[in-house]
Amino acid sequence: MPRDLPLGNGRLLVNFDSSYRVRDLYYPHVGRENHTIGHPFRFGVWCDGRFSWIEAPEWERDLRYRPETLVTQVTLTNQAMGLRLHCSDAVDFHEDVYIRHVQVENLADNEREVRLFFCHDFHISESSLSDTAYYRPWQRLLIHYKGSRYFAINACTDRGCGLDQFSTGNKEIEGAEGTWRDAEDGKLEGNPIAQGSVDSAVAVHVRVGGKSRADAYYWMSVGNTYDDVRTLDELVVGKTPAEMIRRTANYWHLWANKEGDEYADLAPALVELHKRSLLVMRTQVDETGAIIAATDSDIAQFGRDTYAYMWPRDGALVARAFGAAGFGQPIHKFFDFCSRIITKEGFFLHKYNADGSLGSSWHPWVYPEDGDLPVQEDETALVIWALWHHFERFRNIETIKPLYRPLIMRAANWMCEYRDPRTGLPRPSYDLWEVRYGIHAWTLGTVYGGLQAAASFARAFGETDLADKFAGTAEEIKTLTTRHFWQESLGRFVRTVYRVEGGALEPDPTLDASLCGLYRFGMYEASDPRIASTLNAMKDRLWVKTDVGGMARHDGDWYHRVSQDVEHVPGNPWFVCTAWLAQWYIAQAENAEQLEPAREVLHWILDRALPSGVLAEQVNPYTDQPLSVSPLTWSHAEYIIAVLDYVDKAAALESCAQCGLPLRPRRRHGHVLEKDVSAHQVGSPAPGSA
To answer: How crowded is residue 306: how many other Cβ atoms within 10 Å of its Cβ?
Structure first.
């Protein structure tokens, strides 16, 4: 079931499913530890002797956010019970507290009592072993704890603060389903403590007049000790939960709206999705700087592992989107994080946990030739490429100085050295889809961009010999790319060449969306006829030929495949790949009319977002339903880049039309590295924005 409505503050992250049940609760890191491991926290309602869980078919659910905030706007309607619930959820922007406001609307004419039940299926620190749940009667609080993880649960109405009902019990042992079953008669038994594999249920009661509304608040304080959560609970009571939600809404509204933002002629709904994408991405950034790929734990059903890691590739591309949109702080920490985890040799491994430890991997260390490594070289290259764009955008030399030797120079020297002495090409590595081991067009494009970025840094720091070395290696790789990847017989580039026995190179002509990497990082111009022929072939083959449409990753993609009709459905549509198509349309546009195809693609993405604005990894090619993880941070990043590219190109085209000068790309959002900036050394006046 796809995740929706992520809420977080960099330490505490809460995800809901499409039935509005809390399904993931991460603390103290985004992506690490998930204290539910996907088990639902149920929400139920009792009125007039009738009980219903909100995931039941009789409920009509509308799950959205308040505009431009990280506060939810959820409506739950049950006509049979004569009730409508208006819910607002927030994770406080500063404190580790999750709060829900439930406004109960009575659709009947008579006054009624409504009981709201909140159930907690904790697996603290990702295990059901040795948990404790207990009730504290003095504060009318319910506590869950294990080791250094504490959760305090409270509620209030206009009658004051404290739980009206509670119970704890066992689950997942000896046939026990859980304490949530105790709620279904509207009355909890009040068991005060349970240990081992435990859960809990609490209730808050409200009286609602006929055709009237009444308010209830529920919240959970999270910390490392009882004193931590007790102090947070007192803070919520003192400030009031309503004020905590209000201040959080105000904070995120200010965050999402920067002075001077312009969006050309894009429809308001596209702009709204752009801001929503920024907010959703922000929830996936840990306080340490790690940018997490996805925190949807349901993907674990397929392999007992998740996407809750920091891939340097994904992180770099997300950082690029943040920087292009003018958000420096989240990515300052990201590059510091990268500097801490890079190997002494100068490369990144597969993926990392939010605390900086090495993540799980399926890349073996056994390779046919000495010197080959289990790496995806694009992960190293893209961090340096994104860091140059970060510096170019913000011009903060103090953030670059401590990264120059341990990160930039170390990675650049490794990229220069990690080449096959027989061909001069980079050694084989895994492709960005993490499936094929070979020499890939995408990888070569990123290495070119990464080395040119390193050359720009070296030149800025006055180390011209190093700058010449890095730039010269990049140009050698470009020459070799043309020689080995351009296939005259096909009239286009190929995605991969494989090193076969004797060192010969064998091309793989399969069409792959990643071929856009050949222009995207500066190796070739978007308008180069060879790029145009390659990407046109890619578009013609990989656009899904159903009513849904969208771009597949590559021909014959098997990942989460739902169709065997490969001729019409080469793979499921991916938001990332579809956004790449929009970016290419924008990059090659020479007049305003040529931007129309890009607008159409942006609307395709908008139409397939969840009502909340959340973008999954893929969608079903027949039903539009989300597939794989949701949200995928990378999906939102590529949409943001496409929007900003569009805005910049539209402004440049308008300027050219007015002054009659040739089109010159603006620097702020364009993919192509601006080589002129590298001529300015550290200490020289920074060039003005283009």
So the answer is: 25
Residue 71 DSSP code: B
pLDDT tens digit sequence for 366-421: 876 788 999 999 999 999 999 999 999 999 999 999 999 999 999 999 999 999 99
Domain boundary residue among 255, 289, 324? 255
Q: How far is CA 45 from CA 79, 103, 109, 203, 504, in A?
A: 13, 13, 19, 9, 68
In a domain, 176, yes or no: yes
- Counting residues of the chain whose pLDDT is more than 70, the rounded percentage is 94
Q: Is 301 contained in some domain?
A: yes
Residue range of the domain that includes 428: 258-679
Query: Are both 281 and 208 inside the same structural domain?
Result: no
* Long-range contacts from 656-664, C-beta under 8 angstroms, 24+ separation: 657/592, 663/590, 664/690
Tell me, yes or no, whether 169 and 275 share the same domain: no
Q: Give mean pLDDT, residues 342-361.
A: 97
What is the count of structural domains for the chain? 2
Query: Mean pLDDT over all residues of the chain?
Result: 93
In a domain, 686, yes or no: no
Question: Dihedral sign, CA of 241, 242, 245, 251?
Answer: negative
Q: At what angle do helices 633-659 and 268-283 cross, to 10 degrees?
A: 140
Rounded CA gap, 509 and 518, in Å? 15
**CB of 258 closer than 8 Å to CB of 251:** no
